[in-house]
Amino acid sequence: MISGMKILFLHGWRSVPGGVKPTYLVEHGCSVMNPKLDDEDFEAAVQTAQREFDLNRPDCVVGSSRGGAVAMNLDSRDTPLVLLCPAWKNWGTVKRLKPNSAILHSRQDEVIPFEDSEDLLVRSKLPLELLIEVGYEHRLADESSLAAMLWSCQQLVSKSSLSDDFLEVQTKQWNHHGENMQGESSYICDACGEEIVIPLDLTEGSSQKYVEDCPVCCRANIIHVSIEEDGDAQVWAEPEQDHD
Ligand SMILES: [Zn+2]
Q1: Lower Cβ count inside 10 Å, N or C end of the chain?
Q2: Distance 213 CA to ligand 1 centre (A)
């Protein structure tokens, strides 16, 4: 986790500042600028965003839907962009994306077709791996999408450029994540032998360890989570040692 990441969040058409996505970023330690953008005048929206950008020099710009098009039309220099189902075909003049970007989009998006994001990468001559398939509708407000948004910001801010290495891990991790929507895994409780399903939080890193009481027999287990390079999660439990 990069603490105090400064994010310029550009909301979608007729959204209001303070929605679930910027709130999620704030809850995860980011400082978020979330200006109100003009819903009618696209140029005015871009100017507002540009002013905010120049004033605050964010580490990363996140743009949602129409806000994604605003982000693409900014002079954002080498600051990374994370675009959530960007509505680039509907608004703005910029029809290409720079390399230090990521796109999150649901194939079930009912407003902006998933194919628009594929199209954007193709015409930008960028690898399709920059498109992360998450969520199940346009808003991308589910936990998995929110985590992918934060994760993408962290990755792009911490790397000066996107290495092949990063691309590979990124795709496999989130494609895997997409397969089991909630990012779940399970372990066998050592005490009672029951299989316990747990949620995975990939933003907590690739090696995690914590104590949890078995929901069946209530014995304390130390849970180890190891997320492999190929995105598979290994989870195992050992009984918590008695220190008395
Ligand atoms: Zn148990």
Answers
A1: C
A2: 8
